[in-house]
Design a protein that fits this description.
By secondary structure, the protein is mainly beta. Helices cover about 5% and strands about 50% of the residues. The protein contains four helices and 70 strands. The strands form eight sheets. The chain has a 26-stranded mixed β-sheet that branches. It has a 14-stranded parallel β-sheet with strand order 1-2-5-23-25-28-31-34-37-40-43-46-49-52, with no helix packed on it. Strands 13-14-17-16-15-18 form a six-stranded antiparallel β-barrel. A hairpin with a 3-residue loop joins strand 13 and strand 14 (about 165). The longest helix has 15 residues, at about 1-15. The radius of gyration is 31 Å and the shape is globular. The termini are far apart.
């Protein structure tokens, strides 16, 4: 009994001796005694004082910073708390949160000419990565400017390993030594590299990463005074430790200019059980928080703003908890927790503007990210992540839950990424990963500085060798590549998701990037709706033969819909040796019969008429479109086009047969002048041979290089019996000598066509947004959304004037007229 009482008494003493220490930059005095600093009326003053006595604190002690005060300096944690009694760093008093800052305000500006001013106030840090003018961030100066030709990227003509690049165009003949060349080496890699020397149009550099550049990609130059020619651009002279800034005809005296001057604001190295509450941090030159081999670090109700690189960077730190924090304007990543940060919990935070300035981020592929976590037993939930230069949420590890997050605007500067992304390029796939009930919108994509015109942002992206993942209940919309992308994945369950208006709603792909086979996947009970007639509901790709797609997994009981044009909505691609790559396009019914997939899947009844003809022009732009005589001017590529004066169609007609061993072929028909912004109605008769339904792609194209498409490509079935088609083209470019193209994607196809008519018409094009509505609830409680009239959802359930949505759910509605 005495031993038991002694233990209780000792515990009470531990709690009783927990002490509060007060700090105020306004009223504090660092000469006060520890006893005086335990009273709010006689606080200590500075971060340097806090650092000098930090190792004297005991578990359960609290360091309290006065609200409304500004503290300059780098806090270095040198003592641990205990698991039950952490050392707490928090706020006291009333007013705004206390701020720990790394900013210095610059004054005493000297005019250097050409609109450039230099501050005579020397900085302490060897680098500067954050500059504010009137509390708005500005990036380093660059050549070319972002609004110059090519969006400010100089194309690479050639390169030598990872040591040098040669420009395809000229750039200023200056000594760029020690400046930085920012190179887009891959779609997902943009590196900052120090220039060693220049030889003509060649730059030799010390690489910022192991990635080799690619010819045709782009670069620009920064961190040199000669790049300053637009308001707010700056250059930091490391040798003189002076900031140079371009104001043009304005003067610095009319602005408040701040520069980051401290590399790390909070450093915790091999210390445990530290809690931060109700504090604000700003102006780190590199990292606001740096956590290294530590445990049980907690941030709650904090604000982190203007981090030069990462707001919270951790390596091999266990049980990081960040809850209800606001993290904005991180030049690299808001969260960068790597090296087995097991037990991380990121909950109910607002994260915005992560990696949105080119040339200001780090060199890893995992840069420009909102939340980046590598670790097991991780929870990422109830966060709002908006405006990320690359992925919004990227995770690696076992037993990870990504749930109830709202993701918006991602892949703004890099792409081949996702709103929620994971991948595992190793032979030991991760286990027990759950992506549930997230809302992911607006995957923008970025092709600037690449040789490709496509953009590649996907809502949920499971990359090489991802496995053992459940993707369920998510709502995804407006992504430039795919709503859901399964890239070389296996053992993945995709169920009960709603995907709307992405370039393709779901892509399942096997390619040479991984040795993993695409197997044992389940895609069931999802809703895939394409808003526009150019979008696909689903696409399946393999670098193997057609039967490989059969082995991708179970695909069934889904809804596939494209209300504007529901005839051909699913694509598949495979390799047929020795012909090569074959692209095929299917209606839902033909997809079912061709691959024995989706046998219980449906397409909803609602459809939209794509256009209404108000006045059809009188001039048919296809001369002799009824083929009553042989038509000169029609050219055939990799196919045979033969005129017949009688047979399967109306009198004369044209018969086309694609040649063996060529997967793509087409005929061209001259149609003369096409005007941008005008609508063109195409009518034609088509008939195939046999009952196996094939497809044909029809579009308008320029007659000369670079052979630009003048309107979207539209696919139609080639029926066994004759069928009359009518489609509309909305021209996007002018072309005086346009061609009408009929294109095939398989060898050995024969079709006949007749009665071809192309008219410039006064037509009203249906706007999908006038009839289709995507509504969502990104909150944690039920939400009532008002509707303008009556609507039906994909399952034909009716709603009048309003719809009630559960938390983190969505609905796709069609207006009832």
């Amino acid at each position: 009994m005495k031993v038991f009482l002694l233990i209780i008494f000792t515990g009470c003493l531990s709690t009783a001796f927990a002490t509060n220490y007060y700090f105020s930059s306004t009223y504090g005095d660092d000469t006060r005694t520890p006893m005086q600093a335990q009273r709010s009326a006689t606080p200590w003053k500075s971060i340097s004082k806090l650092n000098s006595i930090f190792n004297t604190f005991q578990p359960g002690d609290s360091i309290l910073l006065r609200k409304g005060d500004l503290f300059y300096g780098s806090l270095i944690v040198t003592k641990s708390g205990s698991k039950d009694q952490p050392i707490v760093i928090a706020a006291y008093g009333s007013g705004e949160l206390p701020v720990i800052t790394g900013f210095v305000t610059l004054s005493n500006w000297d005019f250097k000419g050409n609109g450039i001013f230099s501050s005579s106030q020397k900085l302490d840090d060897s680098s500067v990565n954050m500059v504010l003018i009137n509390n708005s961030e500005y990036a380093m100066g660059r050549y070319p400017n972002a609004d110059d030709a090519g969006n400010g990227w100089i194309p690479i003509l050639s390169h030598v390993k990872n040591n040098s690049i040669t420009a395809a165009t000229s750039f200023p003949n200056l000594d760029w030594t020690n400046a930085e060349v920012v190179v887009r080496k891959k779609r997902y890699v943009i590196d900052r590299n120090r220039i060693i020397s220049r030889e003509g149009s060649t730059l030799n550099y010390k690489s910022g990463s192991q990635y080799e550049p690619g010819d045709g990609f782009g670069f620009f130059i920064q961190n040199h005074i000669s790049t300053l020619d637009q308001f707010g651009e700056w250059y930091y002279d490391q040798s003189l430790k002076l900031l140079n800034l371009y104001f043009g005809k304005r003067k610095p005296s009319g602005f408040t200019i701040k520069a980051s001057n401290i590399n790390v604001l909070v450093k915790i190295k091999k210390q445990n059980n530290i809690s931060f509450e109700n504090l604000a941090f700003e102006g780190s030159d590199a990292k606001t928080f740096y956590l290294y081999y530590s445990k049980n670090i907690r941030l709650k109700n904090c604000v982190i703003n203007f981090s030069g690189l990462n707001a919270i960077e951790g390596y091999n730190t266990q049980n990081v908890q960040v809850e209800n924090c606001v993290i904005s304007n991180s030049n690299n990543n808001a969260f960068d927790l790597t090296g087995n940060c097991n037990g991380t919990q990121v909950k109910s935070n607002r994260v915005s503007n992560s990696g949105i300035f080119l040339g200001m981020a780090g060199n890893s592929p995992h840069s420009f990210i909102g939340i980046n976590v590598d670790g097991d037993s991780v929870i990422i939930e109830n966060n709002k992540v908006d405006s990320s230069g690359y992925a919004a949420i990227l995770f690696l590890g076992n037993s990870v839950i990504v749930r109830n997050n709202f993701v918006n605007h991602f892949c703004l500067l890099k792409d081949d990424g996702g709103g929620i992304y994971t991948g595992n390029n190793m032979n030991n796939p991760k286990k027990d990963q759950l992506i549930e009930n997230n809302i992911v919108l607006n995957g923008i994509g970025a092709n600037e500085g690449t040789p490709d015109t496509s953009t590649q942002a996907s809502g949920i992206y499971l990359d090489d060798n991802s496995a053992n993942i459940t993707v369920t209940g998510n709502s995804i919309a407006y992504c430039s590549k795919a709503g859901i992308l399964l890239h070389n994945c296996h053992e993945v369950d995709v169920t009960k998701n709603t995907v709307y208006s992405s370039a393709t709603q779901i892509i399942v792909q096997k390619d040479a990037a991984s040795t993993a086979l695409v197997r044992n996947n389940t895609v069931m009970n999802n809703i895939f709706v394409s808003k526009d007639a150019t979008q696909f509901t689903a696409s399946f790709f393999t670098n193997s033969n057609a039967t490989d797609i059969d082995s991708f997994g179970r695909i069934d009981s889904n809804y596939y819909s494209r209300p504007m044009d529901d005839s051909v909505t699913i694509s598949a691609s495979y390799v047929d040796k020795p012909i090569g790559k074959i692209n095929k396009f299917y209606s839902l019914d033909k997809w079912k019969s061709g691959y024995n997939k989706d046998l219980s899947s449906k397409k909803p009844s609602f459809q939209l008429s794509a256009f209404k003809i108000n006045d059809l022009g009188k001039v048919n732009k296809v001369s002799n479109g009824n083929f009553d005589k042989n038509q000169p001017g029609i050219n055939a590529f990799r196919c045979k086009a033969t005129w017949h004066n009688s047979g399967v169609l109306d009198g004369g007609y044209l018969q086309v047969t694609s040649l063996p061993n060529f997967p793509d072929s087409y005929i061209t028909i001259p149609v003369g002048n096409i005007q941008s912004g005008k609508n063109y109605i195409l009518r034609f008769t088509l008939a195939g041979t046999g009952s196996d339904e094939k497809t044909i792609g029809i579009y308008l194209r320029a007659n000369g290089a670079p052979y630009t498409n003048l309107a979207q490509k539209i696919y139609r079935n080639i029926p066994g019996a004759r069928h009359n088609y009518e489609i509309v083209f909305s021209a996007v470019k002018d072309e005086p000598n346009a061609l009408l193209i009929f294109a095939l994607n398989e060898p050995n196809i024969t079709y006949s066509t007749d009665n071809i008519q192309l008219y410039q018409a006064n037509a009203t094009i249906t706007r999908p947004d006038d009839n289709l509505l995507f509504v969502y609830n990104p909150g944690s409680s039920l939400k009532k959304i008002s509707l303008n009239g009556g609507y039906k959802d994909i399952r034909n359930e009716a709603y009048f004037n309003s719809i009630l949505l559960a938390p983190y759910s969505s609905a796709i509605l069609m207006k009832q007229n």
